[in-house]
Amino acid sequence: LGATRPRISVVGTGYLGATHAAAMAEMGFDVMGVDSDPAKVAALSEGIVPFFEPGLPELIRTHVASGRLHFTTDIVEATAFADVHFICVGTPQARGSNAANLSYVEEATRSVARNLTHDGIIVGKSTVPVGTGARLRSIVAGIVPAGISTELIWNPEFLREGKAVDDTLTPDRIVLGGTTALSEAVMREVYAAPIAIGTPVILCDLPTAELVKVSANAFLATKISFINAIAEVCEAAGADVGVLADALGHDIRIGRQFLNAGLGFGGGCLPKDIRALIHRAGELGATKAASLLQQVDEINMSQRQLVINMAIEACGGSVLNRRIGVLGAAFKPLTDDVRDSPALNVAAALHLRGAQVVIYDPEASSTAQRMFPTLTYADSVEEAATNSDVILVLTEWEEFNSIDAAALREIVALPVIIDARNCLDAAHWRAAGWRFTGLGVAPVA
Ligand code: UGA
Questions:
Q1: Residue 21 contacts residue 33 (beta carbons within 8 Å)
Q2: Is 217's C-beta closer than 6 angstroms to any atom of ligand 1?
Q3: Contacts of 177 (CB under 8 A, 6+ apart)
Q4: Domains in the chain, please, with CATH?
């Protein structure tokens, strides 16, 4: 190890692992992705990505064809093949608790350690509660075959869904926790391409690396709940949160990103990561972080209820038998991911109250349908809007900006729209005769 170009294995081929494996191949390495799901491995081996991520299918096809990228279900084969083993499996919220479920990370690490045939480095990439790496290190030390030397380090990932390929090829920073001189040298070789274009490398201990990741997500979540809290004040005071956010954003200490008021955050990361941090901070007796983030979570969840209440009010106090057109199901645009999607949460709550909810999403209808089969899905904005009493915009897909408000008015029962992502041009809709409401702006009489 260290003498020849390292070969790479990537354990877990979800959003993180599939993207990381493809990016490593793009950077010139021989890569083997491992997953226990044979259907996923078969699909990826043919360049088919089982989820929507712009640019990823092309990258995977290129490197499956170039021979640098392989997928297997066989952890023994992958471990024997590689020198650097990335752990990219999920850490979902545990059932009935705020804690993270670490069983997949633990099992993946054990499988690699147990099957090592030569010296290698195990690199944790999954998002884990602080202290996990240290625990995994002692597990690894107990099971690694005699005569083989291995290290376990942490290298958290910061990719966003929808921008995963770019984020992986050109990250903002590379955090390496718990390296020795040897593993640092190997990782600098692995990340030679981004380092060559100036990506900063931060060397730190294991717990700091683990915490950088969860703190980054906690900070982003806090920004969103902050602006949603201010949006409430704006609405009560007759101010406009969008203009306010633009003005705040000019201060480079604040920055404009993640200050979009609306339905709040969802997805497979932010919600479960702040809850895991609340839980872990509590275990560590760090009560300030726990209580701050508890508020962030509560404010975020209250946005969903706020939008549900706005829909009920728009329907005159009850949604029973009212037809509601929902635009957006994904937790954000440019993904078909509906994990903890605020949009589907709102849609399902209104359905439960007796509304006829018809949902349109440009990419996420089939994933949404698998999760909420009892809801109705449409193939177009028009189909979702037909005969509706109110339209709710719950995910800010670009396509919704080009809706012809005048034409849509002709097919609805009532021209009422709630823009829960503040993404549409209110003036355009009002000019076409719609009753248009956003969040964090005083309603127009
Ligand atoms: C997030 C982080 O942004 C990544 O850096 C991180 O690597 C990733 O989690 C992870 O831990 O794997 P992602 O879950 O893809 O990425 O989504 P974001 O782009 O962060 O959006 C999260 C949610 O916040 C979405 O529901 C979005 O609609 C919402 N949001 C975002 C707002 O409500 N307002 C904003 O101003 C921005």
A1: yes
A2: yes
A3: 133, 153, 154, 155, 156, 204, 205, 206, 207, 208, 209, 210
A4: 8-204 (3.40.50.720), 214-298 (1.10.1040.10), 303-437 (3.40.50.720)
Whether 423 is a known active-site residue: answer no
Rg (CA), the chain: 24
Ligand 1 centroid to residue 336 C-alpha, Å: 14
Q: Does the C-beta of 394 come closer than 6 Å to ligand 1? A: no
Q: Whose CA is nearest to atom 3 of ligand 1?
A: 160
Pocket test for ligand 1, best of 241, 332, 344, 393 (most atoms within 8 A of CB): 332
Decide: 33 and 110 in contact? Cβ < 8 Å: no
pLDDT of residue 45: 97
Q: Is 77 annotated as a binding residue?
A: no
Q: Is the CB–ligand 1 distance for residue 258 below 6 Å?
A: yes
Q: Which one-letter amino acid corresponds to residue 200?
A: P
User: Residue 44, Cα to own-chain centre: how many angstroms?
Assistant: 21
Q: What is the token pair recorded at 212? A: 């950088």
Question: How high is the mean pLDDT in each 10-residue block of the chain (445 residues)?
Answer: 86 97 98 97 96 96 97 98 98 92 98 98 97 98 97 98 96 98 98 98 98 98 98 95 97 98 97 96 96 98 98 97 98 96 98 98 96 96 98 98 98 98 96 96 73
User: Using the 8-state DSSP alphabet, how is residue 284 labeled?
Assistant: T
What spacing in Å lies between the alpha carbon of 113 and ligand 1's midpoint?
A: 33
> In the numeric block, which tokens belong to residue 268?
């497979």
Q: Of the residues 89, 125, 160, which should be mutated to test ligand 1's pocket, given the most ligand atoms within 8 Å of the CB?
A: 160
Nearest ligand 1 atom to alpha carbon 224: 34
Rounded distance between C-alpha atoms, residue 340 and residue 271, angstroms: 8
Residues 391 and 414: their CA atoms lie apart, in Å, by 9
Q: How far apart are CA 421 and CA 396, in angstroms?
A: 6
Question: Complex ipTM, two decimals?
Answer: 0.97
pTM: 0.96
- The phi and psi torsions of 127 (rounded to 5 degrees) equal -85, 120
State in Å: Cα 2 to ligand 1 middle. 36
